[in-house]
Amino acid sequence: MACTKTRLQCTDRAHDAHFATKQQQERLSELVILATEAKEAEKMDIKELIRQFADLKARKKRFTS
Fold first, then answer.
1. What are the residue boundaries of the structural domains of the chain, listed by start?
2. Whole-angstrom Cα distance, residue 20 to residue 17?
């Protein structure tokens, strides 16, 4: 590596570049997850999900003392 600065400065720059690349990879991974979840959400029947949720809530019993 040709660097006119000190070895520590070269190492810092390499570390910064590695960190930036890692952040970009994490963002891309998160975007893939979001896209996959969005596709799955489109397949869901919202009215049916609401009905199922309401049925579950209706079955809960409150115990009072």
1. 7-63
2. 5
pLDDT digits (tens, 9 = 90+) for 5-19: 666 667 777 788 888
What does DSSP assign to residue 4? S
pTM surpassing 0.85? no
User: pLDDT, tens digit, for every residue of 1-60?
Assistant: 555 666 666 777 778 888 889 999 999 999 999 999 999 999 999 999 999 988 887 776
Phi/psi at 21 (5° precision) = -65, -40
Q: Give the span between the Cα atoms of 44 and 7, in whole angstroms.
A: 56
One-character DSSP codes across 12-60? HHHHHHHHHHHHHHHHHHHHHHHHHHHHHHHHS-HHHHHHHHHHHHHH-
